[in-house]
Specification:
The complex is a heterodimer of chains A (about 300) and B (about 350). Chain A has twelve helices and no strands. Chain A is mainly α and about 300 residues long. The C terminus of chain A is likely disordered. Chain B has 16 helices and no strands. The mean pLDDT of chain B is about 85. Classes of the chains: A mainly alpha (about 300), B mainly alpha (about 350).
Amino acid sequence: MKTLNSTKLLKQASQRTPFQNVLHRITRHRSAQVGFLILGFMIAMAILAPVLAPFGPIKVLTDVKVRAPPCIHWLGCPADKPEHIFGVDGNRRDLLSRIIFGSRLSLVIGMASATFAILAGVILGALAGFIGGWFDNLIMRLMDVLLAFPSLILAIAIVAVLGSGLINVLLAVSIVAIPVYARVVRASVLQVKEQDFVSASRALGASSFGLLINHVMPNALTPLIVQGTLGIASAILDSAALSFLGLGAPPPTPEWGLMLGEERNSVFNAPHLVFIPGIAIMLTVLAFNLIGDGLRDALDPRLVHGG
Amino acid sequence: MTTFIIRRLILLLPVLLGITFITFIMTRLLPGDPCFAVMGEKATVAQCEEYSQRQGLNDPLLVQFVHYLNNIAHGDFGQSLRNNRQITDIVMERLPMTLEVAIGATLFSTTFGILLGIVSAVKRNSIIDVVTMMIANVGVSMPVFWLGLVLAYVFALTFKGTPLWIPPSGRLTSGLSIPPLVETFNLQNLSGPMLTLVTFASNTVTFNALITGNFKVLRDALWHLILPCVAVGTIPLSIIARMTRSSLLEVLGQDYIRTARAKGLGLRVVIIKHALRNAMLPIVTIVGLSIGGLLSGAPLTETVFSLPGMGTQLITSILSRDYTVVQAFTVIIALIFVTINLIVDLSYVFLDPRIRLQ
């Protein structure tokens, strides 16, 4: 090892813990940097929403025209007109304020449904892996069946049964995502189960739960983190799509997909009402996709050296 | 080879059973008595009892399920709760539109995706590569309904009055229509499955126009298909381009590529004959998977472009609580998806002879 450490760079790398290594790589990953930048911006917007938003998200204004285009004083909009940076929507609400408050919903829905899906996936995958036999078969075939549906169609069908609404959308979007996580965890349970040290710790009285926490999860963590990040992205997209179709958040919720759906027929005379919410969705989804890609590169054990 | 296909088909059975069972169970899980969901809150108990008896809702669940399977196997999906039409008829009316968009989008995304992927891989780290991969990254993050609306705005409004103008909605220009094949070919005495098939072909406007030589309608129909196909095709295009690039890069690093180049073969021949063939397996997988994405996107694009397809019908049916239609459509879309995956799996055998030997 000594000879290898001849360069300063390698020396630094070898002194880092694995966690620091990952941190080092992810912060240097070009697309992850962009992703974190956008996400940071979105999170700040979500937290500071009441401070940043010039109006309430559902406040109906009286002094403006319906679907008024953006008016920015700095860009030459007459000073006697009220300023609306993103314009006004079909119900005379300030679009900027709605976009700002919408970031809260998108982030919460994305993260909550990914968390729920991961939890359910971990539990099902671990049970299938540890119990084995017919139970394993049953669970995994069920997962195959869920994967046999195009995801959004299944989500739509689930919402059709549960009824529309944000919570049901959240459930539907996460149910659709469960199989991926269950497969990852089951695979790593099966991998760990066969190893000698596991038989040894079993013989010493370790419980399945202990094995899960101490040996399986560390193995499954990398794919779970990467999949989870990308999962947040698709959860945000899918829930926005459901709201767009009128199956998600009820009006007047400031949900980006709903805002787009409500105004889709006025795309030709008030394009800002359609373009801006879409860009907001796209940026948020892009942020998670970029971070997911970065995490995959940073966590890939094939690239790990020196640690 | 045959054993491979048979084994793959047998593996499909539990999945098919699962798909039908899940969709069956879904409609039984509906809150409240199904009868009230169907006949409205004002239905009397006696009416309900009569309805349940007629629909076999009083039978044990398993009996009902077997009944349901039997009907599906005979192509009978029951009736719409809202207008009493046979669901098979609705499907024959709606499916062609969805398939036309799906096929068009697949052609668009595969052709351009593979091309862009090849260019990016060959000219690695060039401007073209960087821009393609940037667009690919943004492409996967784009909501398809938003892209559809943006395309409609750009091509129908910004390019209004120029040759680039493309109609933003509908299937044909209003006033234009095409007679059903039954009339064109005097097939009035057809019945049963043949009639269903002819109706299906007839409702596939592009196909109908093509075989009847009605090129005016054909051109118009294809014209209307451009924007929906580009909108649904963009996300798969991004994924296919990324996959082609990485798969090709891996192959291009192999020794036999260097050998082929060393013996004097041109870059073009090496890429197409040697590299691309070996890089094809993951690309085909991704193309197959993305068709699932196309089906997922159907409700969204069809809503945006006001197309009379499965997707818009599905949404209308959900909003009007027409559960039998929702159930049938979900099953049919899943069946199409499963079939496509099967075809993809089987195509491996042709692409990679090693799989045949296993």
